[in-house]
Amino acid sequence: MNSFTYFRAHEVAAALTEKATAPQAKFIAGGTNLTDLMKVNVEQPHHLIDIRRLPLNKIEETEENGLRLGALVTNADTAYHPLVESRYPLLAKAILAGASAQLRNMATNGGNPLQRTRCYYFYDTATACNKREPGSGCSALNGYNRIHAILGTSEHCIAVHPSDMAVALTALDAKVNVTGPQGERVIPFPEFHRLPGDTPNIDTNLSPDEIITAIDLPTKGFAENNAYLKLRDRTSYAFALVSVAAALELEGNIIKEARIALGGVAHKPWRKPEAEAQLVGKEANPENFAQVAETLLAGAQGFGHNNFKIELAKRAIVRALLQAAKMEEIS
Amino acid sequence: MSNTTTNYIGKPASRVDGRAKVTGEAKYAAEFPAPGLTYGVVVSSAVAKGTITKIDTAAALSLPGVLQVFTHQNRPGLAWFDKKYQDEDAPPGTPFRPLYDEKILFSQQPIALVVADNFEVARYAASLVEITYETEPHITSIKNRLHEAYTPKEYKSAEPSPRGDAEKGLAQAEITHEAEYSHPSEHHNPMEMHASTVVLAEDGTLTVYDKTQGVQNSQNYITQVFGLAKEQVQVISPFVGGAFGSGLRPQYQLFLAVMAALELKRSVRVVLTRQQMFSFGHRPATIQHLVLGSTSQGALTAVVHEGFAETSRFEDYTENLVNWSAMLYKCDNVQLAHKLIQMDAYTPLDMRAPGGVTGLYALECAMDELAYKLDKDPLELRLTNYTNIDLSKDNPFSSKELKACYQQGAEKFGWAKRNPQPRSMREGKTLIGYGLATGAWEVNQQKSSAKAVLSPDGQLKVTSATADIGTGTYTIMTQIAAETLGLPLANVTFKLGDTALPQAPLQGGSWTAASVGSAVKAACEGIQEKLLAHIRNLKEGPLAGVQKLEEVLFADGKIILKSNPAQHMLLPEVMRLAGENFIEATVTTKPELRQKKYSMFSHSAVFVEVLVDEDFGTIRVTRVVSAIAGGRIINPKTARSQILGGIVWGMGMALEEESVMDQPYGRFINHDLAEYHVPVNADIHDLEVIFVEEDDDIVNPLGVKGLGEIGIVGTAAAIANAVYHATGKRVRDLPITLDKLM
Ligand SMILES: Cc1cc2nc3c(=O)[nH]c(=O)nc-3n(C[C@H](O)[C@H](O)[C@H](O)COP(=O)(O)OP(=O)(O)OC[C@H]3O[C@@H](n4cnc5c(N)ncnc54)[C@H](O)[C@@H]3O)c2cc1C
Ligand code: SF4
């Protein structure tokens, strides 16, 4: 860990100005990911801009009858917020499936989607990693890749994005509100994260000088029929091997709309509009769900240790959809 | 003595150090302050094998506050012979010497120590040390290398001793089972990282606060390596935040901190990082080949157990891996082998129930598989082959209530409800499985000393240089002392973890209760004798005329005349009349010779229920009943905690734990607690511990067998067997993660 200087911002503008004067600085919110990475020398900022006190700490209803989640509201406060619980239970479930109670009390809504991969090699500076050190190589390709991606990979990086919350936000078509030197803009959640391509060092389409101010949830929350299924190596406090955020709008047994996002399988939460379209007008049943699973996993490729994820993901999709359709108990 | 208020042995008592621990008053090795303390941070090797060709410390040294960067190039000259580096728990070979030369023997080898006058600067400076290596090809796996295995010259515990003719036994067998079982390396990962704070006094003497399971082992190591006299080094370790074997050998932070303190003439603290906790001893990976032969009725005709285990290039680490297969069941023909395969990694180290937990995992899974082949209940199979004699030594057991464990465990668990057919019990998509396994662990008593001092205010202070690695030593020693002298618990303090105190063995092998407990009891009996000597001189008063100890009772804070309990005296009264300010006794106890005629083991029967998701292979251990025959239970509360901890760890071993060796780098790659999985609360459901009655007057005067390890043995096999019963799929390579079941 290197030595660093520290500035606490109380206004968004002040944080942006500070960042402009020290472009290598990092924003710090809950600090649950950034400080870990600093301790192992993966992140080495010389200056920290603490944004924890920015006035972005509320959950409010939007004009379009949606919900605005302040970037600095904690994951815990978000998951247990009455409006989130009642209108967006899928999000609450996904958040609560992640990390631990202690971490969720610190982690923020802005920091969560920006947490970095848990690839072992990314965390260990004794190894080569294109995400950490562009051009050094990818150790996971021929190394131990049990937790790695099966979709959207590149020869430069096969890491997965570890967030659970982001998987639900992707399924819900949330929007990320950001402010930067150029002003404000909105990034649709499914476009927030990137595939690795030949720049795996860049995780998202957020520019380093922009701040996430809030995440907007649209009106539609799929509160009636949804499920977040997370498969992992222990019952809690482990990242997903595969996770599925599933949401359905049903009329009787007929699907009017479907949303499916996968976690643990790619560099970003994985969604495929054509797969979802495939379900529209169909009956909610295991056969149709199995078909959509095939579509979602089309082109999936394992790297040895993680081959099992392909079949696991298919089964998880079916189960999550069955749970969302209330055709299956949630265990 | 059963109706007295000071009858503590066998009764639950809360930890006497509990309050100190939860309030933070208890201090650990890295928490002791010292004036002018400096901080050392270790730089670890990035490669597994090779040579350091260049080490550039200029940038680190140029930081304000950095005092020195120690490397192999500037370290002081130290002891020459290997023997000097061999600690009490060192296996045969050439012990690793930190900063010895430019050779890299394992990944994360300590290659530099940066010392600065504050921790943050030291840590930053450590990241600036630049090392250039010339790497050599390394080998860090034992898979596919069984042909390279060799028989070590020396075994730590008993050498594998075959009996009968296994080949003949197999030829006679009507049913055979043959299979290979394996598990990966695992690390101890105690909560507290290894740390040493070395405080240098003006006269040059050292007070060392070390994380260790034996202060005297650390002291011997330091004095030998640095050529110091014992008077110059005091090692103190009052509290240990878990160790599980990792503190049985002095770890390199101790060497580095002492070296830096002597060189810089400053007090120094070195604390390892969580990542560096993966840089030394660990449970060795093994591959075990089992062959069982039996009659069609299930009587074993042959047992073959060959174990292959990793060791380092520089030491031959062995543990009791295969001998269990010679003692647990009745069988005339047993063939055993325990061979080693070298890797470019650090030497393995005892980890909770070393060898037992892994060897019995293989044997007990094999027994389960045999049971299915025989179409016999696995419990029946064990009973068919039950033995009251340890056939490996032809000795009777000092006691063995394993049958009671099977019976009480099976009843509590509801074993009878098990449908013998695999994959026959289910609820929807959830497959249900029952499994069982047997556990055993050696009982040992070691030479130990303790001192007891009774003061005129009725306070008793008992001391011994043993450790409390979280096992409850403080508490049970207090109980033993209080009961022996009939004093209230509150009047007794027990002190440990200091080389100034009477000699005690390393805290390992589950022998502390037996060894130090015997010494504590004897020291308190020494006080009884001295009090008696004074009582004999009394011409008048309630105890006048008493000649022998048998005539009195030490209870309720008093010395009571047995023939007339209304006649009694307080202990301080006797002292006052005798004109004594203090009464003290120091006693050393050793195992009695007659123990040699017996085999001494604790046993367990573990019953497990698992629920397995049919589609995903996710496993939940919903019920465990562990029935323990562990001799006399001094404190059912701390005893139960020991067993619960063992069960939970057994679950980790069965389902989660694995130090993943990245082969291209030759490096444990999941080196933090986010990725090295141990069970979390949500994994734990219904755990039940039964202590069956077991009287044993052979093992030691207290009749205790020790409980630190038996709880983990058997658990992993029982879970693996339950998973098979649930799914019909046999996974013989731990941990049983969901991908292996899909
Ligand atoms: C052991 C462990 C287990 C975990 N398990 C899970 C899990 O199972 N599932 C899961 O989803 N997560 C898990 N987490 C991760 C946890 O959810 C994240 O660490 C947390 O959400 C990050 O939020 P933070 O506010 O602490 O971010 P910080 O650490 O403060 O910041 C993370 C990054 O985001 C940037 N940043 C933060 N806020 C903003 C903002 N408003 N605008 C612009 N940039 C910003 C920072 O500069 C930094 O680069 C786990 C973490 C740990 C340590
Ligand atoms: S998968 Fe990505 S993060 Fe992991 S080593 Fe390769 S480049 Fe680095």
TrEMBL record, chain A:
Q: Which domain of life is it from?
A: Bacteria
SMART domains associated with the record: CO_deh_flav_C (SM01092)
The answer, when asked if Flavoprotein is one of the entry's keywords, is yes
Ranges annotated as spanning the membrane: none
Q: Which residues form the FAD-binding PCMH-type domain?
A: 1-222
**Which Pfam families does the record match to this protein?**
CO_deh_flav_C (PF03450), FAD_binding_5 (PF00941)
UniProt GO MF annotations? FAD binding; oxidoreductase activity
**Keyword tags:** FAD, Flavoprotein
- Spell out the PROSITE patterns in the cross-references: FAD_PCMH
Which InterPro entries does UniProt cross-reference here?
CO_DH_flav_C (IPR005107), CO_DH_flav_C_dom_sf (IPR036683), Diverse_Substr_Oxidored (IPR051312), FAD-bd_PCMH (IPR016166), FAD-bd_PCMH-like_sf (IPR036318), FAD-bd_PCMH_sub1 (IPR016167), FAD-bd_PCMH_sub2 (IPR016169), Mopterin_DH_FAD-bd (IPR002346)
> What PANTHER family has UniProt attached to this entry?
OXIDOREDUCTASE, XANTHINE DEHYDROGENASE SUBUNIT C-RELATED
Provide the protein name: Xanthine dehydrogenase family protein subunit M
UniProtKB/TrEMBL annotation, chain B:
Q: A single GO molecular function, which one?
A: iron ion binding
Annotated region Disordered: where?
Answer: 151-170
Composition skew (Basic and acidic residues), residue ranges = 151-168
Top-level lineage group: Bacteria
Q: Which SUPFAM superfamilies does its entry note?
A: CO dehydrogenase molybdoprotein N-domain-like, Molybdenum cofactor-binding domain
Q: Which residues cross the membrane?
A: none
Q: Where is the Aldehyde oxidase/xanthine dehydrogenase a/b hammerhead domain?
A: 23-137
Q: Which InterPro entries does the entry link to?
A: Ald_Oxase/Xan_DH_a/b (IPR000674), Ald_Oxase/Xan_DH_a/b_sf (IPR036856), Ald_Oxase/xanthine_DH-like (IPR016208), AldOxase/xan_DH_MoCoBD1 (IPR008274), AldOxase/xan_DH_MoCoBD2 (IPR046867), AldOxase/xan_DH_Mopterin-bd_sf (IPR037165)
| Name of this protein | Xanthine dehydrogenase family protein molybdopterin-binding subunit
Task: Supply the source organism for this entry.
Answer: Adhaeribacter rhizoryzae
